[in-house]
């Protein structure tokens, strides 16, 4: 997550921050924003930025663990509905539906990490379960 935030900090405005401070300032939302999202079921711009960034970070962790190219596709509309996908080649490893923004917005790093770890474990378990089948048919390759 910190690497993604650093990559989008083109002018290095937040380079002096520790990774935890950077995540708190640039990724996590305030309690007021969460309360506002919970009250009227709309997703603020901060919340809508969280979704693709978190799924990109999860894809990066999965790539490090399995050695395959993992891609993410994530979106959420202003009403809080959307989806997050993690896939490799033509195989969808993780698919999460977002209803009224749930489980977003994240206000704490611990909850963010717990959600990310659960997604990584789910995706890697699915990949391991179907690894033999996908290798035979070339579904994990881009050429497939």
Task: Report what the structure shows.
By secondary structure, the protein is α+β, with helices and mostly antiparallel strands. The chain has one domain: Protein of unknown function DUF269 (Putative cytoplasmic protein, Orthogonal Bundle). The protein has 6 helices and 3 strands, in the order ααααβββαα. It has a 3-stranded antiparallel β-sheet, with helices on one face. α4 packs across α5 (109-129). The chain is globular and about 50 Å long. It holds the Pfam family DUF269. This is Nitrogen fixation protein. It comes from Paenibacillus sabinae T27.
Main traits of this protein?
144 residues; alpha+beta; Putative cytoplasmic protein; 3 strands; 15% strand
Write a compact overview of the structure shown.
This is Nitrogen fixation protein. This protein has 144 residues and is of the alpha+beta class.
What topology emerges from the helices and strands here?
Blueprint: H1 2-7, H2 19-26, H3 31-40, H4 45-66, E1 71-76, E2 82-88, E3 91-98, H5 109-129, H6 131-137
Antiparallel strand pairs: 1-2, 2-3
Helix pairs in contact: 4-5
Radius of gyration equals 16 Å
Please state how the strands of the largest beta sheet are arranged side by side. Answer: 1-2-3
Uncertain stretches: none
- Outline: globular
- Secondary-structure element pattern, one letter each: HHHHEEEHH
CATH topology tier name: Putative cytoplasmic protein
Q: What is the terminal-to-terminal distance?
A: 31 Å
**What is the CATH domain class?**
Mainly Alpha
The number of helical elements comes to 6
Percentage of residues in DSSP E strands: 5-15%
The CATH architecture classification is: Orthogonal Bundle
CATH superfamily: Protein of unknown function DUF269
Protein name: Nitrogen fixation protein
Organism: Paenibacillus sabinae T27
Pfam families: DUF269 (PF03270)
